[in-house]
Amino acid sequence: MDSTQVKSLISQILREQGLPGVLAFLNDAVPLRYTAVHRYAGRLVKSVCFHDALGKRRPSFLSVLPLDRSLAQFVKPGSPFRTDDSSKDPRLVGHAYEHVIFSYHGTALVSPSGQPWGVLCHFDLQAGSISDRAFEDLETVAPIVASFAIDPHRRFIEAGHPPAPTADQAL
Question: What is the CATH number of the domain that holds 81?
Fold first, then answer.
């Protein structure tokens, strides 16, 4: 699928299933266990929506993290962060999650005013990689996901569509 088709499909999934459906769709394309949307809240990173390929609930330690202990701190607009194995990544020596979150592939979610809002990421508690194509798809859909995550009702009501379930309704 090209990027236009991916965007169209993600928009359709958002209308019909909300963020949970999008995260499940994105996760199906990668061998990693988790796909998530996290938002910045001051010095914290809070989980907005979370998908576990094994169908389990989000581990409590992943609900809210201090930003300086999260791998999300390395994701900046225009500068994604990827590591297949944090235990072998020299950028992460001594990091709190160096031997906890082994694989992390995240891209920035940006507000309409251009401010960093959060991250869209694939990650796992085991080492693992994703294809460059899967990461390109993550980056392609990030603006759509950001728009919906920031204001799930406005965008679709203006377009004449009923609002999809919000992340809070899906949790």
Answer: 3.30.450.40
